[in-house]
Amino acid sequence: MGILGVQAAGIEDGARFSILTNEVVAITDPGYPWLPWLAGAVLSLAVFAVVFLWSSRLGHVQRARGIGGFTVAAIGLIVWAMLLSNLGMYGPDSTLGVPFGVLGWIKFGGSSTAPQFFAALGLCSVALAIYRRSTSAEGVPRDPGD
Length: 146
Hints:
Elements: H1 2-13, E1 15-17, E2 24-27, H2 34-53, H3 60-86, E3 94-95, E4 98-99, H4 102-110, H5 113-134
Antiparallel strand pairs: 1-2, 3-4
């Protein structure tokens, strides 16, 4: 999502960025970044399918652990992106407000709505799993996988 976010920002501003270094490689007319946004939507759908739908085959505890780990990573990415954006921690090199390399990917990836949505969805999913576990019928043996 970070790489796609950098490319979309460049297209909107009329700049083409190198995919690996985020350096400006060409100046063009500003445009609408439909291709990076479409790719971001497909990527988000794939992440949703893998993390939330595929994990439904697991027991409640394993699912909560997997989604919980994913949620912690998403929140870490969001916090890191906020620090980069708000504290100006770009390092000495940046072009047009886009940090070079990985820092640019983190800034644009973490400030994207996708990780924020998935973090919220993950928190709700883990809370629901904990609630289900705590309110399960007493006296009923629990699945060893739960």
